[in-house]
Amino acid sequence: MMKKELIAMMALLALTTGNICQAQTVVPQACEQSIITPKADGRFLWLPIEESAPEGKVLVIADGIMQMEQNVRMAREEVDYYVMLDLQPFKDRGGLRVCVQNVPTGSICFSKLTQNSDADFALRDEKFRPLYHQTPKRGWMNDPNGMFYKDGVWHLYYQYNPYGSMWGNMHWAHASTTDLIHWKDEGVALAPDVWGTMFSGSCVVDGGTVVAMYTASRPTPFGGDVQAQCIAFSRDGGRTFAKYDGNPVLTAEEKDFRDPNPFWNEDIGMWNMILAAGQEMRIYSSRDLKEWKYESSFGKEYGNHGGVWECPDLFKLEGKDGKGSKWVLVCNINPGGPFGGSATQYFVGSFDGHQFVCESMPKVTKWMDYGKDHYATVSFYNAPEKRRVVLAWMSNWQYANQVPTKQFRSANSIPRDLGLFRYGEETYVSVVPSKEMLAARGAKVKNPTEACEIVVDTKGQTEIVLSNAKGEQVTMVYNATAQTFSMDRTQSGEVGFSEAFPATTIAPTYGQIRQLRLFIDRCSIEAFDAEGKMAMTNLVFPSEPYNTIKVKGGKATIYEIK
To answer: What does the alpha-carbon distance between residue 211 and residue 342 come to, in Å, rounded to a whole number?
Structure first.
Protein backbone atom coordinates (compact mmCIF):
# COMPACT_ATOMS: atom_id res chain seq x y z
CA MET A 1 0.00 0.00 0.00
CA MET A 2 1.40 3.40 -0.98
CA LYS A 3 1.64 6.13 1.65
CA LYS A 4 -0.96 8.38 -0.02
CA GLU A 5 -3.40 5.46 -0.23
CA LEU A 6 -2.89 4.69 3.45
CA ILE A 7 -3.44 8.35 4.38
CA ALA A 8 -6.68 8.37 2.41
CA MET A 9 -7.82 5.17 4.11
CA MET A 10 -6.96 6.48 7.56
CA ALA A 11 -8.83 9.71 6.92
CA LEU A 12 -11.87 7.71 5.81
CA LEU A 13 -11.64 5.58 8.94
CA ALA A 14 -11.50 8.67 11.13
CA LEU A 15 -14.67 10.02 9.55
CA THR A 16 -16.61 6.75 9.53
CA THR A 17 -15.77 5.31 12.94
CA GLY A 18 -15.25 8.40 15.10
CA ASN A 19 -12.77 6.38 17.16
CA ILE A 20 -9.95 8.93 17.39
CA CYS A 21 -8.03 10.85 19.99
CA GLN A 22 -7.39 14.58 19.70
CA ALA A 23 -9.28 14.67 16.41
CA GLN A 24 -11.52 17.49 15.26
CA THR A 25 -14.66 15.41 14.92
CA VAL A 26 -18.12 16.52 16.05
CA VAL A 27 -19.48 14.16 18.69
CA PRO A 28 -22.20 11.79 17.41
CA GLN A 29 -25.56 12.12 19.14
CA ALA A 30 -25.41 8.47 20.26
CA CYS A 31 -22.89 9.43 22.94
CA GLU A 32 -25.53 11.46 24.84
CA GLN A 33 -26.34 8.31 26.83
CA SER A 34 -24.72 9.49 30.10
CA ILE A 35 -23.12 12.91 30.45
CA ILE A 36 -20.88 13.99 33.34
CA THR A 37 -19.97 17.66 33.81
CA PRO A 38 -16.69 17.91 35.78
CA LYS A 39 -16.36 20.45 38.58
CA ALA A 40 -14.18 23.51 38.13
CA ASP A 41 -11.72 22.33 40.78
CA GLY A 42 -10.03 18.94 40.87
CA ARG A 43 -7.63 17.89 38.15
CA PHE A 44 -8.50 14.18 38.08
CA LEU A 45 -11.76 12.39 37.46
CA TRP A 46 -11.52 8.92 38.97
CA LEU A 47 -13.33 6.23 37.00
CA PRO A 48 -14.52 3.15 38.97
CA ILE A 49 -13.54 -0.12 37.25
CA GLU A 50 -15.02 -3.60 37.42
CA GLU A 51 -12.80 -6.08 35.59
CA SER A 52 -15.54 -8.54 34.74
CA ALA A 53 -17.74 -5.82 33.20
CA PRO A 54 -18.02 -5.41 29.43
CA GLU A 55 -16.14 -2.52 27.92
CA GLY A 56 -17.95 0.78 27.60
CA LYS A 57 -16.64 3.96 26.03
CA VAL A 58 -15.54 7.13 27.77
CA LEU A 59 -15.32 10.28 25.64
CA VAL A 60 -14.01 13.70 26.57
CA ILE A 61 -15.83 16.52 24.78
CA ALA A 62 -14.90 20.21 24.69
CA ASP A 63 -16.09 22.99 22.38
CA GLY A 64 -18.51 20.45 20.92
CA ILE A 65 -15.56 18.41 19.66
CA MET A 66 -14.55 14.92 20.76
CA GLN A 67 -11.05 15.23 22.22
CA MET A 68 -10.49 11.68 23.45
CA GLU A 69 -12.13 8.27 23.37
CA GLN A 70 -11.11 5.16 25.32
CA ASN A 71 -12.56 1.71 26.03
CA VAL A 72 -13.20 1.41 29.79
CA ARG A 73 -14.75 -1.36 31.91
CA MET A 74 -16.88 0.97 34.01
CA ALA A 75 -18.15 -0.70 37.21
CA ARG A 76 -21.72 -1.96 37.01
CA GLU A 77 -22.16 -3.89 40.28
CA GLU A 78 -18.94 -3.47 42.30
CA VAL A 79 -15.74 -1.43 42.17
CA ASP A 80 -12.43 -3.30 41.87
CA TYR A 81 -10.21 -0.21 41.58
CA TYR A 82 -10.05 3.31 40.13
CA VAL A 83 -8.26 4.72 37.09
CA MET A 84 -7.36 8.34 36.45
CA LEU A 85 -8.82 10.57 33.77
CA ASP A 86 -6.62 13.68 33.71
CA LEU A 87 -8.80 16.70 32.89
CA GLN A 88 -5.97 19.24 32.84
CA PRO A 89 -5.35 19.16 29.05
CA PHE A 90 -9.01 20.07 28.42
CA LYS A 91 -9.83 22.56 31.18
CA ASP A 92 -9.11 25.67 29.13
CA ARG A 93 -11.67 24.66 26.55
CA GLY A 94 -15.36 25.43 26.72
CA GLY A 95 -18.20 23.05 27.49
CA LEU A 96 -16.05 20.32 29.05
CA ARG A 97 -18.05 17.12 29.39
CA VAL A 98 -17.36 13.43 29.85
CA CYS A 99 -19.67 11.09 27.99
CA VAL A 100 -20.08 7.42 28.98
CA GLN A 101 -21.48 5.11 26.34
CA ASN A 102 -22.71 1.51 26.44
CA VAL A 103 -22.98 1.44 30.26
CA PRO A 104 -26.43 1.07 31.91
CA THR A 105 -27.50 4.31 33.63
CA GLY A 106 -28.15 2.48 36.92
CA SER A 107 -24.57 1.17 37.16
CA ILE A 108 -22.69 1.78 40.41
CA CYS A 109 -19.92 3.68 38.61
CA PHE A 110 -22.02 6.83 38.37
CA SER A 111 -22.49 7.09 42.14
CA LYS A 112 -18.84 6.22 42.84
CA LEU A 113 -17.22 8.75 40.48
CA THR A 114 -14.77 11.01 42.34
CA GLN A 115 -13.02 14.21 41.31
CA ASN A 116 -10.00 15.61 43.16
CA SER A 117 -6.33 16.55 42.73
CA ASP A 118 -4.90 13.56 44.62
CA ALA A 119 -2.75 11.56 42.18
CA ASP A 120 -2.56 8.70 44.72
CA PHE A 121 -6.30 8.47 45.32
CA ALA A 122 -7.38 4.93 46.32
CA LEU A 123 -3.92 3.58 45.49
CA ARG A 124 -3.29 0.40 47.45
CA ASP A 125 -0.26 -1.79 47.97
CA GLU A 126 -1.22 -5.14 46.49
CA LYS A 127 0.55 -8.11 48.01
CA PHE A 128 1.96 -9.21 44.67
CA ARG A 129 3.34 -5.83 43.62
CA PRO A 130 7.13 -6.23 43.18
CA LEU A 131 9.42 -4.24 45.44
CA TYR A 132 12.44 -3.77 43.16
CA HIS A 133 11.08 -4.38 39.67
CA GLN A 134 9.59 -1.64 37.52
CA THR A 135 5.78 -1.64 37.47
CA PRO A 136 3.09 0.92 36.59
CA LYS A 137 1.29 2.51 39.54
CA ARG A 138 -2.03 1.64 37.92
CA GLY A 139 -3.17 -0.05 34.76
CA TRP A 140 -1.85 -2.59 32.32
CA MET A 141 1.72 -2.85 31.03
CA ASN A 142 3.32 -5.06 28.40
CA ASP A 143 6.29 -4.67 26.01
CA PRO A 144 9.17 -2.40 27.03
CA ASN A 145 9.67 0.23 24.31
CA GLY A 146 12.08 2.98 23.31
CA MET A 147 14.75 2.33 25.93
CA PHE A 148 17.77 4.64 25.84
CA TYR A 149 20.49 6.12 28.05
CA LYS A 150 21.31 9.83 28.08
CA ASP A 151 23.09 12.16 30.52
CA GLY A 152 23.27 9.62 33.32
CA VAL A 153 19.61 8.58 33.09
CA TRP A 154 18.13 5.34 31.78
CA HIS A 155 14.78 5.88 30.07
CA LEU A 156 12.12 3.21 29.63
CA TYR A 157 8.84 3.47 27.77
CA TYR A 158 6.30 0.68 27.74
CA GLN A 159 2.99 -0.40 26.28
CA TYR A 160 0.39 0.94 28.66
CA ASN A 161 -3.36 1.03 29.26
CA PRO A 162 -4.10 3.90 31.68
CA TYR A 163 -7.79 2.93 31.85
CA GLY A 164 -7.66 -0.63 33.14
CA SER A 165 -5.35 -3.49 34.01
CA MET A 166 -6.20 -5.56 30.96
CA TRP A 167 -4.74 -5.04 27.47
CA GLY A 168 -6.19 -2.17 25.44
CA ASN A 169 -5.99 1.59 24.71
CA MET A 170 -2.28 1.35 23.95
CA HIS A 171 -0.21 4.38 25.03
CA TRP A 172 3.50 4.77 25.68
CA ALA A 173 4.13 5.37 29.38
CA HIS A 174 7.53 6.57 30.61
CA ALA A 175 9.74 5.67 33.56
CA SER A 176 13.31 6.73 34.34
CA THR A 177 16.11 5.65 36.66
CA THR A 178 19.72 6.44 37.47
CA ASP A 179 20.54 2.98 38.87
CA LEU A 180 18.31 0.53 36.91
CA ILE A 181 16.64 -0.48 40.21
CA HIS A 182 14.63 2.47 41.52
CA TRP A 183 12.23 3.81 38.90
CA LYS A 184 10.45 7.15 38.68
CA ASP A 185 7.02 7.26 37.04
CA GLU A 186 7.14 9.96 34.32
CA GLY A 187 3.54 9.59 33.13
CA VAL A 188 2.27 9.10 29.57
CA ALA A 189 4.67 10.12 26.78
CA LEU A 190 2.68 9.21 23.64
CA ALA A 191 -1.10 8.89 23.34
CA PRO A 192 -3.30 7.56 20.51
CA ASP A 193 -4.10 9.89 17.64
CA VAL A 194 -5.82 9.83 14.24
CA TRP A 195 -3.35 7.21 13.01
CA GLY A 196 -4.26 4.79 15.82
CA THR A 197 -3.02 3.48 19.13
CA MET A 198 0.66 3.43 20.10
CA PHE A 199 2.12 -0.02 19.49
CA SER A 200 5.73 -0.99 20.19
CA GLY A 201 8.84 0.77 18.92
CA SER A 202 12.19 2.23 19.91
CA CYS A 203 14.09 5.45 20.59
CA VAL A 204 17.46 6.70 19.36
CA VAL A 205 19.55 9.67 20.42
CA ASP A 206 20.57 11.89 17.48
CA GLY A 207 22.66 14.76 18.81
CA GLY A 208 20.51 16.55 21.36
CA THR A 209 17.28 15.09 20.02
CA VAL A 210 15.54 11.89 21.07
CA VAL A 211 13.65 10.31 18.18
CA ALA A 212 10.93 7.78 18.91
CA MET A 213 9.82 5.44 16.16
CA TYR A 214 6.64 3.48 16.82
CA THR A 215 3.84 1.57 15.15
CA ALA A 216 0.44 3.24 14.89
CA SER A 217 -2.27 0.59 14.74
CA ARG A 218 -5.88 1.17 13.82
CA PRO A 219 -8.74 -1.31 13.25
CA THR A 220 -10.54 -1.12 9.94
CA PRO A 221 -14.30 -1.49 9.34
CA PHE A 222 -13.45 -4.52 7.20
CA GLY A 223 -11.66 -6.44 9.97
CA GLY A 224 -7.99 -6.51 10.94
CA ASP A 225 -5.71 -3.55 11.53
CA VAL A 226 -3.83 -0.99 9.49
CA GLN A 227 -0.31 -0.69 10.91
CA ALA A 228 2.16 2.02 9.93
CA GLN A 229 5.46 3.34 11.25
CA CYS A 230 5.58 6.86 12.67
CA ILE A 231 8.14 9.07 14.41
CA ALA A 232 8.10 11.70 17.14
CA PHE A 233 10.77 14.09 18.42
CA SER A 234 11.81 15.14 21.91
CA ARG A 235 14.14 18.02 22.69
CA ASP A 236 13.81 17.78 26.48
CA GLY A 237 15.52 14.43 26.98
CA GLY A 238 12.55 12.21 26.21
CA ARG A 239 10.02 13.71 28.61
CA THR A 240 7.70 15.20 25.99
CA PHE A 241 7.36 14.41 22.28
CA ALA A 242 6.04 16.18 19.20
CA LYS A 243 4.78 13.86 16.49
CA TYR A 244 6.14 14.34 12.98
CA ASP A 245 3.77 16.13 10.60
CA GLY A 246 4.84 13.79 7.81
CA ASN A 247 3.71 10.60 9.53
CA PRO A 248 3.57 7.80 8.66
CA VAL A 249 7.12 7.37 7.36
CA LEU A 250 6.77 3.71 6.35
CA THR A 251 3.79 1.60 5.31
CA ALA A 252 3.12 -1.88 3.96
CA GLU A 253 0.23 -4.15 3.06
CA GLU A 254 0.98 -6.86 5.63
CA LYS A 255 -1.37 -7.29 8.61
CA ASP A 256 1.49 -7.71 11.09
CA PHE A 257 3.92 -4.93 10.22
CA ARG A 258 5.26 -3.40 13.40
CA ASP A 259 7.76 -2.78 16.18
CA PRO A 260 10.45 -0.71 14.39
CA ASN A 261 13.90 -0.70 15.98
CA PRO A 262 16.32 1.80 14.36
CA PHE A 263 20.01 2.17 15.28
CA TRP A 264 23.06 4.04 14.04
CA ASN A 265 25.43 1.64 12.27
CA GLU A 266 28.97 2.98 12.56
CA ASP A 267 30.21 0.37 10.10
CA ILE A 268 28.33 1.99 7.20
CA GLY A 269 27.73 5.51 8.57
CA MET A 270 23.94 5.25 8.21
CA TRP A 271 20.85 4.36 10.16
CA ASN A 272 19.59 0.81 9.96
CA MET A 273 16.22 -0.43 11.14
CA ILE A 274 14.77 -3.85 11.77
CA LEU A 275 11.05 -4.46 12.08
CA ALA A 276 8.69 -7.40 12.14
CA ALA A 277 6.54 -8.35 9.16
CA GLY A 278 4.54 -11.51 9.73
CA GLN A 279 6.94 -14.45 9.88
CA GLU A 280 10.09 -12.53 9.03
CA MET A 281 12.22 -9.55 9.98
CA ARG A 282 12.83 -6.77 7.47
CA ILE A 283 15.92 -4.57 7.40
CA TYR A 284 15.98 -0.98 6.12
CA SER A 285 18.51 1.86 5.82
CA SER A 286 18.17 5.63 6.06
CA ARG A 287 20.19 8.83 6.27
CA ASP A 288 17.59 10.92 8.12
CA LEU A 289 15.19 8.52 9.97
CA LYS A 290 12.39 9.70 7.66
CA GLU A 291 13.06 8.11 4.27
CA TRP A 292 13.68 4.37 4.48
CA LYS A 293 15.11 2.01 1.89
CA TYR A 294 14.30 -1.70 2.06
CA GLU A 295 17.50 -3.79 2.17
CA SER A 296 16.60 -7.43 2.91
CA SER A 297 14.55 -9.88 4.94
CA PHE A 298 15.51 -12.64 7.35
CA GLY A 299 13.63 -15.53 8.85
CA LYS A 300 12.34 -17.92 6.22
CA GLU A 301 12.89 -21.46 7.54
CA TYR A 302 15.13 -20.22 10.40
CA GLY A 303 14.36 -20.88 14.04
CA ASN A 304 10.90 -21.30 15.53
CA HIS A 305 7.81 -20.24 13.59
CA GLY A 306 5.13 -21.38 16.04
CA GLY A 307 3.70 -17.87 16.29
CA VAL A 308 3.98 -14.27 15.14
CA TRP A 309 7.46 -12.75 15.01
CA GLU A 310 7.62 -9.37 16.73
CA CYS A 311 9.64 -6.93 18.89
CA PRO A 312 12.99 -7.38 17.07
CA ASP A 313 16.44 -6.08 17.95
CA LEU A 314 19.73 -6.18 16.05
CA PHE A 315 23.10 -5.32 17.57
CA LYS A 316 26.77 -6.20 17.68
CA LEU A 317 28.28 -8.01 20.68
CA GLU A 318 31.95 -8.34 21.50
CA GLY A 319 33.36 -11.75 22.35
CA LYS A 320 35.36 -12.53 25.47
CA ASP A 321 38.21 -10.07 26.07
CA GLY A 322 36.85 -7.88 23.27
CA LYS A 323 37.62 -10.43 20.57
CA GLY A 324 35.43 -12.09 17.96
CA SER A 325 32.47 -9.74 17.62
CA LYS A 326 29.18 -11.12 16.29
CA TRP A 327 25.84 -9.64 15.37
CA VAL A 328 22.75 -10.84 17.24
CA LEU A 329 19.23 -10.68 15.87
CA VAL A 330 16.57 -10.90 18.60
CA CYS A 331 13.15 -12.23 17.63
CA ASN A 332 10.32 -12.39 20.16
CA ILE A 333 7.67 -14.93 19.24
CA ASN A 334 4.10 -15.57 20.40
CA PRO A 335 3.09 -18.35 20.71
CA GLY A 336 5.84 -20.90 20.13
CA GLY A 337 7.97 -20.63 23.28
CA PRO A 338 9.79 -23.69 24.63
CA PHE A 339 7.05 -24.29 27.25
CA GLY A 340 4.10 -22.69 25.48
CA GLY A 341 3.11 -19.11 24.88
CA SER A 342 5.52 -16.25 24.35
CA ALA A 343 9.34 -16.27 24.51
CA THR A 344 12.52 -14.70 23.12
CA GLN A 345 14.61 -16.47 20.49
CA TYR A 346 17.76 -15.11 18.89
CA PHE A 347 20.16 -15.71 16.01
CA VAL A 348 23.93 -15.16 15.90
CA GLY A 349 25.72 -14.20 12.71
CA SER A 350 27.06 -11.31 10.62
CA PHE A 351 25.55 -8.08 9.29
CA ASP A 352 26.98 -5.72 6.68
CA GLY A 353 24.36 -3.01 6.92
CA HIS A 354 22.31 -4.67 4.21
CA GLN A 355 21.77 -8.32 5.08
CA PHE A 356 21.91 -10.44 8.23
CA VAL A 357 23.45 -13.91 7.75
CA CYS A 358 22.85 -16.49 10.46
CA GLU A 359 25.85 -18.73 11.20
CA SER A 360 23.73 -21.65 12.48
CA MET A 361 21.75 -24.16 10.51
CA PRO A 362 18.13 -23.11 9.87
CA LYS A 363 16.68 -25.74 12.23
CA VAL A 364 18.68 -24.47 15.23
CA THR A 365 16.59 -22.53 17.78
CA LYS A 366 18.25 -20.59 20.59
CA TRP A 367 16.24 -19.20 23.50
CA MET A 368 17.44 -16.27 25.62
CA ASP A 369 15.48 -17.41 28.68
CA TYR A 370 13.89 -20.78 29.41
CA GLY A 371 11.14 -19.62 31.78
CA LYS A 372 7.49 -19.02 31.02
CA ASP A 373 7.62 -15.30 31.79
CA HIS A 374 10.26 -13.57 29.71
CA TYR A 375 9.07 -11.78 26.58
CA ALA A 376 9.50 -8.72 24.34
CA THR A 377 13.20 -8.49 25.20
CA VAL A 378 14.84 -5.35 23.80
CA SER A 379 17.99 -3.41 24.63
CA PHE A 380 18.83 0.13 25.73
CA TYR A 381 20.16 2.37 22.96
CA ASN A 382 23.36 4.25 23.74
CA ALA A 383 24.18 2.34 26.95
CA PRO A 384 27.52 3.40 28.50
CA GLU A 385 30.74 1.36 28.33
CA LYS A 386 29.45 -0.33 25.16
CA ARG A 387 27.23 -2.49 27.34
CA ARG A 388 24.23 -4.28 25.87
CA VAL A 389 21.61 -4.02 28.63
CA VAL A 390 18.15 -5.54 28.15
CA LEU A 391 14.80 -5.71 29.89
CA ALA A 392 11.96 -8.13 29.28
CA TRP A 393 8.26 -8.12 30.07
CA MET A 394 7.70 -10.63 32.88
CA SER A 395 4.54 -12.34 31.72
CA ASN A 396 3.10 -14.67 29.11
CA TRP A 397 0.26 -14.00 26.70
CA GLN A 398 -1.29 -17.32 27.73
CA TYR A 399 -2.46 -15.79 31.03
CA ALA A 400 -1.24 -12.19 31.20
CA ASN A 401 -4.78 -10.80 31.55
CA GLN A 402 -5.68 -13.33 34.28
CA VAL A 403 -2.79 -13.16 36.77
CA PRO A 404 -4.07 -12.40 40.32
CA THR A 405 -3.36 -8.67 40.51
CA LYS A 406 -5.96 -6.02 39.82
CA GLN A 407 -4.96 -2.39 40.22
CA PHE A 408 -1.90 -3.03 38.07
CA ARG A 409 -0.71 -5.85 35.85
CA SER A 410 2.80 -6.83 34.94
CA ALA A 411 6.39 -5.93 35.76
CA ASN A 412 9.60 -5.81 33.81
CA SER A 413 12.53 -8.10 34.54
CA ILE A 414 15.67 -7.04 36.36
CA PRO A 415 18.25 -5.50 33.98
CA ARG A 416 20.53 -8.01 32.28
CA ASP A 417 23.81 -7.63 30.39
CA LEU A 418 24.41 -9.69 27.27
CA GLY A 419 27.63 -11.21 25.97
CA LEU A 420 28.83 -14.21 23.93
CA PHE A 421 30.13 -17.67 24.75
CA ARG A 422 31.00 -20.77 22.78
CA TYR A 423 29.78 -24.29 23.49
CA GLY A 424 30.50 -27.09 21.05
CA GLU A 425 30.21 -25.73 17.52
CA GLU A 426 27.79 -22.93 18.38
CA THR A 427 28.01 -19.36 19.67
CA TYR A 428 25.40 -18.42 22.28
CA VAL A 429 24.33 -15.21 24.00
CA SER A 430 25.27 -15.05 27.67
CA VAL A 431 22.84 -13.43 30.11
CA VAL A 432 23.93 -12.11 33.52
CA PRO A 433 22.25 -9.76 36.01
CA SER A 434 23.50 -6.24 35.36
CA LYS A 435 26.22 -5.00 37.72
CA GLU A 436 23.69 -2.63 39.28
CA MET A 437 22.11 -5.67 40.94
CA LEU A 438 25.30 -6.19 42.96
CA ALA A 439 24.98 -2.62 44.23
CA ALA A 440 21.42 -3.43 45.33
CA ARG A 441 22.60 -6.13 47.75
CA GLY A 442 21.89 -5.37 51.38
CA ALA A 443 22.69 -7.26 54.54
CA LYS A 444 23.04 -11.03 54.69
CA VAL A 445 20.01 -12.70 56.26
CA LYS A 446 19.34 -16.21 57.52
CA ASN A 447 16.06 -16.88 55.71
CA PRO A 448 14.54 -15.79 52.42
CA THR A 449 12.45 -12.62 52.38
CA GLU A 450 9.92 -11.34 49.87
CA ALA A 451 12.70 -9.29 48.19
CA CYS A 452 16.10 -10.95 48.18
CA GLU A 453 18.97 -12.45 46.18
CA ILE A 454 20.04 -16.02 46.94
CA VAL A 455 23.50 -17.12 45.81
CA VAL A 456 23.94 -20.88 45.69
CA ASP A 457 27.38 -22.46 45.34
CA THR A 458 26.69 -25.83 43.76
CA LYS A 459 28.41 -29.11 44.40
CA GLY A 460 27.38 -31.20 41.45
CA GLN A 461 23.73 -32.29 41.76
CA THR A 462 21.85 -29.54 43.62
CA GLU A 463 18.23 -29.21 44.77
CA ILE A 464 16.79 -25.96 46.10
CA VAL A 465 13.32 -25.76 47.69
CA LEU A 466 11.71 -22.44 48.59
CA SER A 467 8.60 -22.78 50.76
CA ASN A 468 6.26 -21.10 53.25
CA ALA A 469 4.11 -22.17 56.21
CA LYS A 470 1.15 -22.83 53.87
CA GLY A 471 3.02 -25.69 52.22
CA GLU A 472 3.47 -23.77 48.97
CA GLN A 473 6.83 -24.35 47.35
CA VAL A 474 9.05 -23.95 44.32
CA THR A 475 11.59 -26.67 43.59
CA MET A 476 14.70 -26.00 41.50
CA VAL A 477 17.12 -28.74 40.45
CA TYR A 478 20.53 -28.47 38.83
CA ASN A 479 21.30 -31.81 37.20
CA ALA A 480 25.05 -31.86 36.63
CA THR A 481 24.93 -35.12 34.69
CA ALA A 482 22.23 -34.07 32.24
CA GLN A 483 23.49 -30.47 32.27
CA THR A 484 20.03 -29.03 32.92
CA PHE A 485 18.37 -26.66 35.36
CA SER A 486 14.66 -26.95 36.15
CA MET A 487 12.06 -24.99 38.12
CA ASP A 488 8.77 -26.53 39.28
CA ARG A 489 6.08 -24.00 40.21
CA THR A 490 3.10 -26.38 40.16
CA GLN A 491 2.73 -26.01 43.95
CA SER A 492 3.94 -22.41 44.17
CA GLY A 493 0.69 -20.81 45.43
CA GLU A 494 -2.17 -19.49 43.32
CA VAL A 495 -2.00 -21.46 40.07
CA GLY A 496 -5.64 -22.11 39.16
CA PHE A 497 -6.32 -18.91 37.18
CA SER A 498 -5.01 -20.57 33.99
CA GLU A 499 -4.38 -24.15 32.89
CA ALA A 500 -1.18 -22.92 31.27
CA PHE A 501 0.31 -21.56 34.50
CA PRO A 502 1.27 -24.70 36.53
CA ALA A 503 4.48 -25.84 34.85
CA THR A 504 7.99 -27.18 35.21
CA THR A 505 10.48 -25.40 32.97
CA ILE A 506 13.84 -26.90 32.00
CA ALA A 507 16.93 -25.20 30.56
CA PRO A 508 20.21 -26.55 29.16
CA THR A 509 23.24 -25.29 31.10
CA TYR A 510 25.84 -25.73 28.33
CA GLY A 511 28.38 -27.20 30.72
CA GLN A 512 28.75 -27.17 34.50
CA ILE A 513 27.22 -24.58 36.84
CA ARG A 514 29.41 -23.50 39.75
CA GLN A 515 27.15 -20.79 41.13
CA LEU A 516 23.49 -19.85 40.78
CA ARG A 517 21.99 -16.42 41.44
CA LEU A 518 18.28 -16.37 42.30
CA PHE A 519 16.33 -13.10 42.48
CA ILE A 520 13.08 -13.29 44.48
CA ASP A 521 10.56 -10.44 44.46
CA ARG A 522 7.05 -11.14 45.76
CA CYS A 523 5.67 -12.63 42.54
CA SER A 524 8.73 -13.66 40.54
CA ILE A 525 11.84 -15.83 40.55
CA GLU A 526 14.69 -15.12 38.11
CA ALA A 527 17.45 -17.72 38.05
CA PHE A 528 20.87 -17.30 36.44
CA ASP A 529 24.06 -19.24 36.05
CA ALA A 530 26.59 -16.74 37.42
CA GLU A 531 28.65 -17.18 34.23
CA GLY A 532 25.68 -16.34 32.02
CA LYS A 533 25.06 -19.68 30.34
CA MET A 534 21.49 -20.10 31.65
CA ALA A 535 18.59 -17.79 32.49
CA MET A 536 15.07 -18.69 33.63
CA THR A 537 12.23 -16.35 34.64
CA ASN A 538 8.96 -17.51 36.19
CA LEU A 539 6.10 -15.77 37.96
CA VAL A 540 4.83 -17.19 41.26
CA PHE A 541 1.90 -16.09 43.43
CA PRO A 542 2.35 -17.49 46.97
CA SER A 543 -0.36 -16.68 49.53
CA GLU A 544 2.45 -15.54 51.83
CA PRO A 545 6.17 -15.00 51.12
CA TYR A 546 8.55 -17.95 50.93
CA ASN A 547 10.55 -17.81 54.16
CA THR A 548 12.29 -21.19 54.20
CA ILE A 549 15.02 -22.58 51.97
CA LYS A 550 16.44 -26.10 51.86
CA VAL A 551 19.49 -26.82 49.74
CA LYS A 552 20.86 -30.28 49.01
CA GLY A 553 24.24 -30.46 47.31
CA GLY A 554 25.20 -26.82 47.76
CA LYS A 555 25.42 -23.82 50.06
CA ALA A 556 23.15 -20.77 50.00
CA THR A 557 23.93 -17.16 50.95
CA ILE A 558 20.96 -14.78 51.16
CA TYR A 559 21.08 -11.00 50.69
CA GLU A 560 18.30 -8.54 51.20
CA ILE A 561 17.63 -6.27 48.23
CA LYS A 562 17.84 -2.60 49.17
So the answer is: 28
Please confirm, yes or no, whether 193 is among the known catalytic residues: no
The DSSP secondary structure of 66-81, one letter per residue, reads EEEEEEE-B-SS---E
In a shared domain, residues 71 and 180: no
Look at residue 338 and tell me if it is in a domain: yes
Q: Give the pLDDT confidence of 64-111 residue by residue, as tens digits.
A: 999 999 999 999 999 999 999 999 999 889 899 999 999 999 999 999
Tens digits of per-residue pLDDT, 441-455? Answer: 999 999 999 999 999
Q: Taking the complete model, does pTM exceed 0.90, yes or no?
A: yes
Our CA angle for 253, 278, 261, nearest 5°, is 90
**pLDDT score, position 323:** 72
Instruction: Spell out where 2-64 has E strands.
Output: 25-26, 34-36, 44-49, 56-62
Closest Cα partner for 250 from 191, 295, 305? 295
Task: Name the residue among 225, 220, 176, 222 with its Cα closest to residue 199.
Answer: 225
Classify the phi-psi angles of 281: left when phi > 0, otherwise alpha if psi is within -120 to 50, otherwise beta. Answer: beta
Report d(CA 562, CA 547) in Å as an integer.
18
> Within this chain, do residues 107 and 252 fall inside the same structural domain, yes or no?
no
Nearest CA-CA partner of 161 in 259, 249, 81, 89: 81
Establish if 109 belongs to a structural domain.
Answer: yes
Q: 78, 70, 134, 79: which is closest to 102 by C-alpha?
A: 70
Amino acid 170 reads: M
270-277 vs 250-251, strand pairing mode: unpaired
Active-site residue (options: 41, 63, 125, 143):
143
287 and 207 share one domain:
yes
Residue 349 lies in a domain: yes
Q: Which range of residues forms the domain containing residue 498?
A: 440-561
